Task: inverse folding
């Protein structure tokens, strides 16, 4: 029985990792020129969060190092997509907000991604997509608790 669970676990993670790689590859091809998946992810998060976040909060949200997030934020700031300001309460910290140009870039990226995403979900079928979401969410939640 343990061998069956091992085989099942390896098969599950192989499928998830392969799907992740294929999704990233497809997304990279349709994102606007110069925009990386990490850039889109941060812009999308800031657009939905409706407020400022510290680089540390963003790093934690995306499960990346602070250095990796600083690199992403530097690129986004250079492109004019985010505003980074000192935290008025603690000068050692910074706060990040999406800029109007960043919101426009994010909206353009969503418009670029929508046809590809819609096609994939359409090919899979809405019922299958709805059925797999709870399992993927539970898998993510369990993996987050293990960090």
Result:
């Amino acid at each position: 029985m343990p061998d069956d669970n091992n085989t099942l676990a390896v098969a599950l993670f192989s499928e998830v990792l392969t799907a992740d790689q294929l999704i990233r590859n497809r997304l990279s091809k349709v994102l606007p020129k110069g925009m990386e998946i990490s850039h889109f992810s941060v812009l999308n998060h800031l657009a939905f969060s409706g407020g400022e976040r510290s680089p540390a909060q963003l790093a934690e949200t995306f499960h990346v190092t602070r250095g990796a997030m600083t690199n992403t934020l530097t690129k986004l700031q250079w492109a004019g997509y985010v505003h980074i300001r000192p935290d008025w309460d603690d000068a050692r910290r910074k706060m990040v907000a999406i800029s109007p140009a960043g919101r426009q870039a994010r909206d353009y990226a969503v418009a670029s991604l929508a046809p590809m995403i819609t096609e994939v979900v359409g090919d899979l079928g809405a019922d299958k997509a709805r059925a797999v979401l709870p399992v993927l969410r539970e898998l993510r939640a369990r993996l987050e608790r293990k960090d």
In short: The chain has one domain: 31-145. The first helix runs from residue 2 to 30. The two ends are 27 Å apart (CA to CA).
